[in-house]
Each structure stands twice: as structure tokens, then as C-alpha cells.
Automatic annotation (TrEMBL):
<keyword id="KW-0508">mRNA splicing</keyword>
<comment type="similarity">
    <text>Belongs to the SF3B5 family.</text>
</comment>
<keyword id="KW-0747">Spliceosome</keyword>
<dbReference type="GO" id="GO:0000398">
    <property type="term" value="P:mRNA splicing, via spliceosome"/>
</dbReference>
<dbReference type="InterPro" id="IPR009846">
    <property type="entry name" value="SF3b5/RDS3-10"/>
</dbReference>
<dbReference type="GO" id="GO:0071011">
    <property type="term" value="C:precatalytic spliceosome"/>
</dbReference>
<protein>
    <recommendedName>
        <fullName>Splicing factor 3B subunit 5</fullName>
    </recommendedName>
</protein>
<keyword id="KW-0539">Nucleus</keyword>
<dbReference type="Pfam" id="PF07189">
    <property type="entry name" value="SF3b10"/>
</dbReference>
<dbReference type="GO" id="GO:0005686">
    <property type="term" value="C:U2 snRNP"/>
</dbReference>
<dbReference type="InterPro" id="IPR017089">
    <property type="entry name" value="Splicing_factor_3B_subunit_5"/>
</dbReference>
<keyword id="KW-0507">mRNA processing</keyword>
Amino acid sequence: MGDRYNIFSQMEHLQSKYNGTGHADLTKWEWMVHTHRDSYASYIGHGDLLSHIAICENESRARVQFNLLKKMFHPCGPPPQKPKWMDM
């Protein structure tokens, strides 16, 4: 039982420390936004991947980087409307 409590406390610590690791109340839309933003950041951070995308799209690296940064604002569209019963 002690090991189980220790694992849950470690998970709670990681979830509070890192924004993208999720938590029990995370919605599907929020999870998708974190995943997309993390992917875009990885593409921008790895120069070889950025070059590969630029070659495939026949664009310059700077244009691809700009487009990926622009996509990070709303990678999955606007947030869905919450039901009225959740506002209580």
C-alpha cells in the first residue's frame, strides 16, 4: 500500500511541476492542445526535422518555423463550449 501511495504522490508532483503532463480533470481538447504544442516545439527545436519539413513543403526553414509558431496559438481550434452544469 505504501508503494502505491508513493507512486501517486510522485505523479501529483510531476503534474503540478510540468504543465503538459495532465491531471484527472484534463479534457480531451486540452490534452490534444498540449500534445500538438509539444510536437510543434520539438519540430522547431530539432533543426534536421525542421529542414526535412521545409524540403517536403518546398518552403524555407524560416517560413516553416514561422508557420509552426503561428499554429501554436490555436492548434486544435477554439475551445469547446462547456455545459452549463459544469459552471456551478
